Amino acid sequence: MNLFSMLELSGSALGAERMRAEVVAANMANAQTTRTAAGGPYRRQMVVFQSQSRPRFSLALNSLSHENPAAVRVAAVVGDARPFVMRFEPGHPDANAQGYVAYPQVDPIEEMTDLLSAVRAYELNASAVQATKNMIQQSLNLLQ
Amino acid sequence: MTNSISSLRILPAEITPPDATAAAARGGEEQDSFLSTLQQSMDAVEGAQGEAQNQVAQLLSGQGADVHSAMIAVEKADLSFQLMMQVRNKIVQAYQQVSNMQF
Fold it and tell me: I need a surface site. Which of A37, A68, B19, B71 has the fewest CB within 10 A?
C-alpha cells in the first residue's frame, strides 16, 4: 500500500534528523575536548545525508507505479576538515612546544542553528506523518 | 447457490473497482479466492500488530529502538486493523442483505 510507504519515507527522514541532532549534541558536548582516544583534539563531526530509492527486484513494476519515493539515510558522519583553534595556554598538559593548545573548531552559534534546524526538520516530518495518517483514515471512512 | 455467492461479490466491489459482469460469471471460484484474500489480510494485520508490539517492547526496555519507528509501526498496525474491521462490517452487511432476501 503506497500510503504506508509514505509513512516509512517520513520515518526515515525522522531517523536522519534525529541522527543529525545527535551529532550536533556530540559536538556541543565535546567543544572543549583536547584529548581523544585517537590522540589530538576532538574533530567536529558533520552528517552527510543521501537519498536512496527503496530496492526493488522488478524494474518493470517500478515503471508501472508512480514515481518511487526516495528515502533518506545518513551516508556518512565525517570530520570537519577545518584546522583546529589554537589557544595560548602554556600551563595546559596538552600544550605543544610553543605553548599552544589545539581546541576543536566548534562554534556554539553554528551548533545552535544546526540544532534548531534539525528540530524544525523533525517537526516537519512528524507533521507529514500526521497528514499521511489523516489521509489513510479519510480513505477508510469511505467504507463506512 | 450461484446467485448468493455472486451477490456476496458486492462486498469487494465496494472496496475494489467494480467488475459486476465478470463477477456474476466467475461465481463459485471467487468464493475461495475471496476467503483466502481475507485470510491473508488477517495474517498481515496480525503480523503488523506483532511487529508493533516488538518495537514498543524494545523501546520500553531501552534496547535502542527509535521512538519514531515504534510509533510508525503502531500506527500501521492500527490502520491495518481499522481497515480489516471495515471490511468485516461490509461482509456482515452483505450477508445480512442476502439472508433478508425474500422469495
Answer: A37
Determine whether the interchain pair A143/B14 forms a contact, defined as Cβ–Cβ distance below 8 Å: yes
Residue A87 lies in a domain: no
Burial of A120 (0-12, 13-18, 19+ CB in 10 A): exposed
Could you say which DSSP state residue A39 is in? S
Q: Do the domain assignments include residue A86?
A: no
Using DSSP, state whether B17 is helix, strand or coil: coil
From the number of C-beta atoms within 10 Å of its C-beta (0-12, 13-18, 19+), residue B70 rates as buried
Cα separation, B9 vs A19, whole angstroms: 49
Residue in chain A closest to B83 (alpha carbons) equals: A140
- Residue A96 within a domain: no
What ipTM was assigned to the predicted interfaces of this complex? Answer: 0.71
Q: Cβ of B79 under 8 Å from any chain A Cβ? A: yes
pLDDT one-digit tens code per residue, A102-121: 999 999 999 999 999 999 99
Distance from CA of A20 to the nearest CA of B (A): 14
**Across the interface, which of B68, B75, B79 has its CB nearest the CB of A15?**
B68
In this complex, the residue of A10, A18, A143 whose CB is nearest that of residue B15 is A143
- Written as nine digits, the cell of A139 is 480513505
Q: Of all residues in chain A, what percent carry a pLDDT higher than 70?
A: 87
